[in-house]
Amino acid sequence: MSNQLMKIGELAKRAGVSHRTVHYYENRGLISPVSREEGSHRMYEEEALQRLEKIAALKRLGLSLEEIADVIDLYFQSSGGMLDGKKKVIDILKAQLKKVDDQIDELSDFRSDLIRNIRHMERLYEEALPSKT
Question: What span, in angstroms and rounded, lies between the C-alpha atoms of 129 and 110?
Answer without folding.
Answer: 29
